[in-house]
Description:
The protein is of the alpha/beta class. 39% of the residues lie in helices and 18% in strands. It comes from Streptomyces coryli.
Amino acid sequence: MLFGAGALAAGGFLTACTSNSDDGGDGGGENDNKAAVADKKKGKQVTIGFSGPQADHGWLNAINDQARKRVKEYEDITFEPVEGSNDAATQSGSIETLINKKVDVIVILPADGKALTQAGLKAMEAGIPVVNLDRIFDTPQASRCWIGGDNYGMGVNAGNYIGEALKDKKNAKVVELAGMDTLELTKQRSKGFRDALKNYKNIEIVARQAAEFTVESGQKKMSDLLQAVKKFDALWNHDDDQGVGAENAIKQAGRDDFLMVGGAGSKHVMDQIKADNTVIKATVLYPPTMAASAIDLARALGQGKGIAGMAEFEIPASITLYSAVVDKKNIDQYLPTGFK
């Protein structure tokens, strides 16, 4: 839901590498798919449908922006977006509209992966390949390709960053401001975080609160943490949007005696890292650039091409993006990718 180098690489890799050659391979001789020489040169016209949740969160809004911007880079894409909705039934109806329009490919970021599985299956059965973006359907049969973030890896990298920062501190204490506990992604982020910190015997997670990916919930739950734990050394916040509320609570409490690591990669947090004058020292990316890469994959599917740098004639069945840690050392590289 709301949630590196890997994200940028995936985006560039796919964009620059979708083959537009009209030559077809016959299975003999040199790999005609050097699929590779691909560029943005106009190829076969492809109509791409796009369906996602309502953009009521900074990361989701960035997903929509990334998709729209990527489409404009190609002359051979006709874009058919439908209105976003957080209601599974409404989104399912929108996907059915795209199926009836007989678009070539559909990119779907489901409001609820389980609830929208049937919609994905229906498109696939109609002969329309589906690119499943981030939130996973219940069965791989509901899509041709999945691309998304690594929630477990996000937690691991946050834990390793904090672990290295505190490895020489005796009896270090850490608190966690998680996302919605009803979501599998939150469970995966927390598990990765805990698994990573098991390697640091001097560090203990002393408190955890689950917020709701909103500024209001972030402020309330952070206030609870600050009242419950009078002294700690580091905070990991799963989501930069709810982190704005957490920052408000921290300022109100007059606290600056710990380091904070965010999650997702908002421009606001990256600006704070760049300035280096608050408790925020890093953020772990959950890159919305995945939506741009999903467009690249959909275009490749619609044109029947593979991607460069790989010997196969077909695009992969799944692509997991890397959750890079952004801190003061590499902030200049990643600052342009921050979302509002």
